[in-house]
Amino acid sequence: MFDKILIANRGEIALRVIRACREMGIASVAVHSTADADAMHVRMADESVCIGPPPSASSYLSMPAIISACEITGAQAIHPGYGFLSENATFVQMVEDHGLTFIGPRAEHIRIMGDKITAKETAAQLGIPVVPGSEGGVADVETARQVAAGIGYPVIIKATAGGGGRGMKVAHDDGALEVAFRTARTEAKAAFGNPDVYIEKYLQKPRHIEIQVFGDGRGRAVHLGERDCSLQRRHQKVLEEAPGPAITAEERARIGKVCADAMAQLGYAGAGTIEFLYEDGEFYFIEMNTRLQVEHPVTEAIFGVDLVREQICVAAGNEMTLRQEDLSIRGHAIEVRINAERVPDFAPCPGRVTQYHAPGGLGVRVDSAIYDGYSIPPYYDSLIGKLIVHGRDRPEALARLNRALSELIVDGVDTTVPLFRELLKDPDIQSGNYSIHWLERWLERHYR
Ligand code: ADP
After folding, report:
1. Rounded to the nearest whole angstrom, what is the distance from the C-alpha of residue 412 to the centroid of ligand 1?
2. Does the beta carbon of 157 lie inside 6 Å of ligand 1?
3. pLDDT tens digit string along 374-409?
4. What is the 3-state secondary structure (H, E, C) of 299-353?
């Protein structure tokens, strides 16, 4: 086992990894930009290293600075968290070339899944059902027309290098295709430096269902059920729950096995998430994330598994302790993302937190790195915390979420907390009856 791990991240996820390290008796090293000198992850880690100025490109994304921090502190392994360098195959290679361990999958698997076309092809080869669409990239409008006519409108044009819900355009008919196609390419070029796009059937009212997988890198893999992340704004997740209210035990077992078998065949190591759109009882692969997800705690809650501990164990070369036959679901969990954003326009709202009180009690988990007097820097993601509740069933989890939200105090900055208080009153949320478009429509109705 490692003696010391460096966490190449900040905020709540850095704290999350530090917690696992401490329980395992492993020393932790925090890295931080000059803007994060007073951050909680720096205070909580056993050691810390300043790796650069505020912009992520010169700090949290600086590969040489992070490798040097390992060398200075003697850390043997790097946990990347999510975002930043977590899905950067070049970084993984560099880490390994320096004799260090990357806590995550092999560079090769990150590369395959990082390119959406290769990912889709690989998924299909591994027996995972995919969304009908173009075979590979689409280079010109004429080909786009033929593909769209073949699969039928509406279609969605997506950036091959896409991520974070950007670079996607929907065309409802042939007349709208050309503009959508050209706009998608221009946006893809601007956002990702790569104009390549592909085309898929646009599903009208799907749910976003993702399967948590975990592999030992040596041909054994398990699944830990699904998360329903359909509540999205601009393709960004807002609330996540597990198990999915619309998924039956049979469907879970079926798609879970397909995913676990695929990962076993791939020799995948560590935690991963296979994302699907789900409509009328069918699952359609959209992408795979080769890292820990923001919403991993809902899975941890219902399975009673510490996913970060498992990641560290597998990376250290230990036997994977997870066995499919031991993995069973207990109750229901819901996570809400607390962002420092003003509702309803969701403008980022950095600034000083004048008062903070976290809820507690049975079945409540708060993953956050804020504190009284903390200044949220303007340079990074606006996620400042996650509130996760666990109950014996969905109604109990909802009641608990409502109760926990009533206890939560974050003063000094605007947050998305009032949004959740409102959302919980809606009968569709209470019944679990929502698709990926539900929240956008609700926001329009509610805040018009
Ligand atoms: P990203 O990597 O940018 O997050 P994804 O491929 O995961 O892109 O898609 C993000 C979101 O976009 C999905 O959760 C869904 O809301 C929407 N989406 C993607 N593909 C389709 C599709 N074929 N039909 C309908 N909605 C889609």
Report:
1. 34
2. no
3. 999 999 999 999 999 999 999 999 999 999 999 999
4. HHHHHCCCHHHHHHHHHCCCCCCCCHHHCCCCCEEEEEEEECEECCCCEECCEEC
Active site residue 400: no
The active-site residue, picked from 16, 252, 291, 400, is: 291
If we measure between CA atoms, which residue out of 329, 339, 311 comes closest to residue 416?
Answer: 339
Please write the tens of the pLDDT for every residue from 184-199: 999 999 998 999 999 9
Pick the closest to residue 147 from 102, 186, 180 (CA basis). 180
CA distance 69 to 73: 6
CB 401 within 8 Å of CB 429: no
Confirm if 200 and 133 have CB atoms less than 8 A apart.
yes
Q: Are the C-beta atoms of 73 and 11 separated by less than 8 Å?
A: no
Evaluate the omega torsion of the peptide bond into residue 344 and state whether it is cis, within 30 degrees of 0.
Answer: yes
| Nearest alpha carbon, ligand 1 atom 15 | 235
**Residue nearest to ligand 1 atom 13, measured at CA:** 235
pTM across the whole model: 0.96
For the Cβ of 275 lying below 6 angstroms from any atom of ligand 1, the answer is: yes
Q: Which atom of ligand 1 is nearest to the CA of 131?
A: 23
- Ligand 1 centroid–CA 294 distance in Å is 17
Q: How many CB atoms lie within 10 A of CB 227?
A: 28
Residue 244 has phi, psi (to 5 degrees) of -70, 130
- Which residue's CA is the nearest one to ligand 1's atom 23? 202
